[in-house]
Amino acid sequence: QVQLVESGGGLVQPGGSLRLSCEASESSFSINAMGWYRQAPGKQREFVALITRGGSTTLATSVKGRFTISRDNAENTVYLQMNSLKPEDTAVYYCYADFEARRYWGQGTQVTVSS
Question: Is 9 a residue whose pLDDT tops 90?
């Protein structure tokens, strides 16, 4: 079983930046893909970004050019660097990890973009 602990959310003004972190309890060398989804109030959870064990990345069209996902396998941590934030990025952001044919989720961290 993998436990995921997220951090880094908060309130930021439009155009600002935040970096989310997600630390896994299992060695990330044995975890396949890790990534992020988000869920805004009244909306379905949507894909944001993923990174494979080998470092290949995929980003949602809505965040390309603004968000970057990276992974530190030595620290069992995945990061989501979010720049040029917009009010529509406001959501609870959930980290996930694919390990031994199961998907594990973090508890979520709130990101609010508002002036």
Answer: yes
